[in-house]
Amino acid sequence: MPTTGTDPTGLPLRCYARHPTTDETIMLVRGQLGFWPAGTTLAPEKLNADLADQPTAAQAQAMLTGSMFGWHVPGADPSRMPATRYTVPSPKTGPANPPTAQPGEDAVDPLLQ
Q: How many whole angstroms separate alpha carbon 49 and alpha carbon 28?
């Protein structure tokens, strides 16, 4: 098995991300469900920058999606990542870009548009 390089879908072998609920730094491995604790307090962006194959933000988001929901879902394909995306709220900071509505309107989740 190669230790670097992207596969035909454009995903690196591994990358780092923030756990969506605990905010800890986790390691994701292409094709594997779940995650592994990174065992460090360094930011995932710093760890990703140190990798031989530095993942883009779209690749890291696609890998997080694939590790959580399966590698067959559209969200596990980095080419299908929207230019702006709804981010998972952090337990420390709250929603990064929550759906908004004007008075008298229903809030619309951007992922459902």
A: 15
